[in-house]
Design brief:
The chain has about 140 residues and is α/β, with parallel strands linked by helices. Helices cover about 30% and strands about 15% of the residues. The protein contains 4 helices and 5 strands, in the order E-H-E-H-E-H-H-E-E. The protein has a 3-stranded parallel beta sheet with strand order 1-2-3. A hairpin with a 5-residue loop joins strand 4 and strand 5. The longest helix is centred in the N-terminal third of the chain and has 11 residues. The radius of gyration is 15 Å and the shape is globular.
């Protein structure tokens, strides 16, 4: 998960991951040089949710793609799901559906529908995947 100065939002993403019914996850947070309290928020969350494996990497400020690339050496799983610190899962079964679909098909990847929200968590717009991509 790339992040930059998201102390005000990253806890929501971590809560979204922790609430998933699929729990065999590793969270890698690659901080692109935040100067706010992003690291403190992640550390506090990690202390409180010790069952969730969180790896926090602090980098010099570069860009989002480099932040993602710096996380790659720490990946230990077979499935990679790239999230951003301001993302949220729509419900608690997203990872279960993704893992099931990937394990039962020969797909190399999946896209999911996206619900865009403003800072007060009001839905603004729902973006649907193209019809040739199977919804999960």
């Amino acid at each position: 998960m790339p992040t930059y100065n998201r102390a005000d939002m990253i806890e929501g993403m971590l809560e979204s991951i922790a609430s998933q019914d699929y729990q065999n996850v590793q969270v890698i947070i690659s901080d692109d040089g935040s100067v706010d309290n992003t690291q403190g928020v992640v550390e506090n969350f990690s202390d409180y949710h010790q069952g969730l494996k969180i790896k926090y990497i602090k980098n010099k400020n570069g860009d989002q793609l480099n932040a993602i690339n710096r996380a790659v050496p720490f990946i230990t799983g077979d499935i990679i799901y790239i999230l951003h610190s301001d993302d949220r899962f729509y419900d608690k079964r997203v990872l279960t559906h993704v893992v099931s679909e990937l394990n039962e098909t020969d797909y190399d990847g999946l896209f999911a529908n996206i619900v865009e929200e403003n800072t007060t968590t009001n839905k603004i717009k729902k973006h649907r995947t193209k019809s040739f991509i199977r919804d999960i």
